[in-house]
Specification:
The structure is a homodimer of 283-residue chains. The longest helix of chain A is centred in the C-terminal third of the chain and has 11 residues. The first copy, chain A, has nine helices and 14 strands. Chain A has 283 residues and is an alpha/beta fold. The two termini of chain A are 21 Å apart. Chain A has three domains: 100 residues, D-Maltodextrin-Binding Protein, domain 2, CATH 3.40.190.10; 80 residues, Periplasmic binding protein-like II (D-Maltodextrin-Binding Protein, domain 2), CATH 3.40.190; 81 residues, ACT domain (Alpha-Beta Plaits, 2-Layer Sandwich). In chain A, 28% of the residues lie in helices and 33% in strands. The radius of gyration of chain A is 21 Å and the shape is elongated. The first copy, chain A, has a nine-stranded mixed beta sheet, sandwiched between helices. Chain A has a five-stranded mixed beta sheet with strand order 7-6-8-5-9. Chains A, B: Pfam families: ACT, PDT. Chains A, B: It catalyses: prephenate + H(+) = 3-phenylpyruvate + CO2 + H2O. Chains A, B: Keywords: Amino-acid biosynthesis, Aromatic amino acid biosynthesis, Lyase, Phenylalanine biosynthesis. Chains A, B: Pathway: Amino-acid biosynthesis; L-phenylalanine biosynthesis; phenylpyruvate from prephenate: step 1/1.
Chain lengths: 283, 283
């Protein structure tokens, strides 16, 4: 059975993504993103799954920064998962759920359900926990308290809570992205119905901060009709005002176009690193 | 005295930024980014300060998303603050600090001090709190426990802890950006020695997902020699695969160049929104 490390604790959104994508795997939870990436690097787990974008638990920046500065592991896959927040209570309180006095969750989850809470629980007190799953756990352990948690489906199952209102998040199209990293750059051989396409992620460092340099860089992709689905400048840790760019191209690494673009960028004194060329899955 | 709302609780990094930038102001803490922005919008505070990038407490994405989708307030200033993490203990434990058994902090702060902790506290247990300041508070309230917190200077002062090791974060050039929002788009009239320059932030929506569209957009800036210091694509909440871009130009709104670029983009069927043109301060 394949061992997969993920950013824990149990029943977070990362766990939900891993469970949906790899129902057969043995899951091992890690407390921080660096610990999870280190575990892959040291061969304790075969794959690691950590949030990359828009995450509730775990800093997005940490993932890319750690991969770039500390442990250079290839990205071998990506999981895109909708953020679906549910209101849940202890089974004792299913009938009286509208009158709960306190709502427990991660502060970002509470912010994501701002409109729903503002409409239905204007008088409730919000209590912040370190994760949505810690909130669900707390509610399950305090059946005598008249409280609710906001968390995902998996947390309700894990801690025996009853979902009393589904999908209370404000935006339907809010997604989290998780990347799958591996020690060696071997292709994931998963024949999954969730497969949705391929992409290639590059890290590009410009020679110096100059007007139009980024435009010149993008020309290398544009005239080859390589479509970019993400571009993000990130401060380098080498000094204030130094940046690098993370770019996603919506296709697999090929023999001609992407290598040609990279060669052109290097001729312009850019540094280019391929962080991965991999399939993505929508769960 | 000017009232300033900020993302709380007390003694977080947002509080530290506000305290450094506006030492004379009356500070009012809000539990979430939406609440803080709403308070500005409803006139309860004159300015609001919320994290925009690289934050420990508070999701970066939430700030831009809330400003774009819910409360369209202008950005009138920016504060750039280094992330400096310190190890602190109750004064009782100053001598024995190297033997603390548990270290309390926000999970991101613990991740940011990964190398230091890995070297000096390999056997300690890490306990996650909802914020660095909550960790400092807990340590101050449990003098009998042999524990430490990782938090900022302000938290040590606020909760009477002693810093036993300064600057334990892994990277010196790690910064957080905070934006200052206001109900009306009036200039901040602060004559501050921390003033470091001006920038203009635009939100640009491309007409459709097409190869090279972004390149075309950047041309409008490049040939005018407008220098971009940040570019970030963000998923729109209108459907998977829809994006908008946030762009920072390193100058104030002028009468010719930026309006010219905007007119050109609109002629290309882009939607352009000026989120603010404002001074930035490095604290």
């Amino acid at each position: 059975m394949m061992k997969i490390g993920y950013l824990g604790p149990k029943a977070t959104f990362t766990d939900l993504a891993v469970t949906t994508m790899f129902p057969q795997a043995e899951k091992i939870s890690y407390d921080t993103i660096p610990e999870c990436i280190d575990a892959v690097s040291h061969g304790k787990v075969e794959l690691g799954v950590v949030p990359l974008e828009n995450a509730l638990e775990g800093s997005v920046n940490l993932t890319i920064d750690y991969l770039i500065h500390e442990q250079s592991l290839p990205i071998v896959g990506e999981i895109i998962a909708p953020i679906q927040q549910h209101l849940m209570v202890h089974p004792y309180h299913v009938n009286g759920w509208k009158d709960v006095q306190e709502i427990y969750s991660h502060s970002h989850a509470i912010a994501q359900c701002h409109k729903f809470l503002h409409t239905h629980f204007k008088k409730a007190k919000y209590v912040y926990m370190t994760s949505t799953s810690a909130a669900a756990k707390f509610v399950s352990e305090h059946p005598h308290l008249h409280i609710a948690a906001i968390a995902n489906r998996l947390a309700a199952e894990e801690y025996g809570l009853t979902i009393v209102r589904e999908n209370i998040h404000d935006y339907d199209y809010n997604h989290t992205r998780f990347i799958i990293v591996r020690r060696q750059n071997e292709e994931l051989t998963i024949d999954s119905p969730l497969y949705a396409g391929d992409k290639t992620t590059l890290m590009i460092t410009l020679p110096k901060d100059q007007a139009g340099a980024l435009h010149q860089v993008l020309s290398a992709f544009a005239w080859r009709k390589l479509n970019l689905t993400k571009i993000e400048s990130r401060p380098a840790k080498t000094g204030l005002g130094n940046y690098f760019f993370i770019i996603d191209i919506d296709q697999k690494m090929d023999d001609v176009l992407i290598p040609g673009a990279i060669a052109e960028l290097e001729a312009l004194d850019c540094t280019v690193q391929v962080l991965g060329s991999y399939p993505y899955y929508i769960v």
